[in-house]
TraR/DksA C4-type zinc finger protein
Amino acid sequence: MDHTTANELLTARRAELVLELERVDSDLESARSAKTDGTDDDEHDPEGATTSAQWSHATGMWRSVLSQIDEVDLALARVRQGNYGTCIRCSRAITDGRLEARPAAALCISCARELST
Ligand SMILES: [Zn+2]
């Protein structure tokens, strides 16, 4: 994949993620205000459990979106350095199909498989 295309894909992906982060942020904000609202008496509060579940879901999402943004930023840095599309582990080329599906991929499919097993 040429670096201009990669740059466009990654920039678009980053913009999506930033929007996502803003959504998660407002979820966190409403979960936070629900949490601090009223008493800490979760046991007798039917809303309590739901609120904590929402909270942990939202914080989990937040971390996931942030780490994806990090991944995209690292990929953009590789585009600038001219080594985008090369596996950071074995230095083989990452296939276009994989890069189209996961523009921020830093590993070729075989390294990704090896590391996930
Ligand atoms: Zn590799």
